[in-house]
């Protein structure tokens, strides 16, 4: 695909009154898995037989994947889950490490019978996906890195570490307000006030200490010196105006990972799962369909029982 700019307008589902109760009738049943001292909340979505694991970003939750998952539901069996410290998973206090998240993801994949699988990660989820691809390459078929980081410059490192320091000092409301402007365009915010209110409501549910622990992993982790060791087919996508996971980083990853594909979404900022879910789903479907053999889900698996 090479460097690719999408020209179609982004698709987004407005959720003016989104709540767990309103979606309970058609939503898949959320389940839990105990991994050590952590309880992980997860769901299995989709009707397909090809295994796909999706990992969300810092301060987010598994429902961030819902629009993309709905578009891929016919072809994939999709595992989404709340990272430790997020959503309805355990609010684990203390220091997090990138390998804690990798261990959690693999435990869930094993539990639901995903022997090999496609892996997609957004932002912090993309860092977790990079680490998993480097440490457990035999588990993965194809890799999708969305709005994630690698090869930060000194200035980029200083900026994200300054945000971490402000967050750790207690400036959490200001941190989120500033993040919204980096994540979503003004046009989207103006046209979707109910969605913005929902995002603010969900953010307010975050545990501040857990958020800071996860953000530290995002701020201090960089696999730029190792990413050329990733060997599986990889799709890299980011927004043209994403400040933190910028096109320069995406191009760097594209040049380092042999045979990778790159897509830069015009006019988009960081939250492409929300503002450009249709484009992301189309890119993922086309990329993953290039290797369309239905494998990865063990016979009889999928209930999580």
From TrEMBL:
<dbReference type="GO" id="GO:0046464">
    <property type="term" value="P:acylglycerol catabolic process"/>
</dbReference>
<dbReference type="GO" id="GO:0047372">
    <property type="term" value="F:monoacylglycerol lipase activity"/>
</dbReference>
<protein>
    <submittedName>
        <fullName>3-oxoadipate enol-lactone hydrolase</fullName>
    </submittedName>
</protein>
<feature type="compositionally biased region" description="Basic and acidic residues">
    <location>
        <begin position="12"/>
        <end position="29"/>
    </location>
</feature>
<dbReference type="Pfam" id="PF00561">
    <property type="entry name" value="Abhydrolase_1"/>
</dbReference>
<feature type="region of interest" description="Disordered">
    <location>
        <begin position="1"/>
        <end position="30"/>
    </location>
</feature>
<dbReference type="InterPro" id="IPR000073">
    <property type="entry name" value="AB_hydrolase_1"/>
</dbReference>
<feature type="domain" description="AB hydrolase-1">
    <location>
        <begin position="51"/>
        <end position="275"/>
    </location>
</feature>
<keyword id="KW-0378">Hydrolase</keyword>
<dbReference type="InterPro" id="IPR050266">
    <property type="entry name" value="AB_hydrolase_sf"/>
</dbReference>
<dbReference type="GO" id="GO:0016020">
    <property type="term" value="C:membrane"/>
</dbReference>
<dbReference type="InterPro" id="IPR029058">
    <property type="entry name" value="AB_hydrolase_fold"/>
</dbReference>
């Amino acid at each position: 695909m090479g460097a690719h700019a999408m020209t179609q307008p982004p698709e987004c589902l407005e959720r003016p009154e989104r709540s767990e109760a309103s979606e309970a009738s058609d939503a898949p049943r959320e389940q839990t898995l105990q991994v050590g001292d952590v309880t992980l909340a997860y769901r299995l979505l989709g009707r397909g037989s090809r295994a796909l694991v999706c990992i969300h970003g810092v301060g987010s939750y598994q429902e961030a994947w819902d629009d993309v998952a709905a578009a891929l539901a016919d072809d994939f069996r999709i595992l989404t889950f709340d990272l430790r410290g997020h959503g309805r998973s355990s609010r684990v206090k203390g220091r997090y490490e990138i390998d804690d998240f990798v261990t959690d993801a693999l435990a869930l994949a094993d539990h639901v019978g995903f022997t090999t699988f496609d892996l997609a990660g957004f932002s912090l989820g993309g860092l977790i996906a990079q680490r998993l691809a480097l440490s457990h390459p035999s588990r993965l078929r194809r890799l999708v890195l969305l709005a994630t980081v690698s090869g930060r410059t000194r200035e980029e490192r200083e900026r994200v570490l300054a945000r971490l320091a402000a967050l750790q000092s207690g400036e959490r409301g200001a941190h989120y307000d500033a993040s919204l402007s980096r994540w979503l365009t003004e046009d989207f915010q103006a046209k979707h006030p109910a969605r913005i209110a929902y995002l603010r409501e969900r953010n307010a549910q975050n545990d501040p200490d857990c958020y800071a622990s996860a953000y530290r992993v995002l701020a201090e982790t960089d696999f730029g010196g190792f990413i050329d060791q990733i060997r599986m087919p990889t799709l890299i996508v980011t927004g043209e105006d994403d400040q933190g996971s910028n096109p320069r980083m995406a191009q760097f990853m594209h040049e380092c990972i042999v045979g990778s594909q790159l897509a830069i979404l015009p006019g988009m900022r960081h939250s492409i799962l929300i503002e450009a879910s249709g484009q992301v789903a189309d890119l993922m479907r086309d990329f993953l369909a290039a290797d369309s053999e239905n494998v990865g889900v063990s016979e009889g698996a999928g209930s999580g029982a």
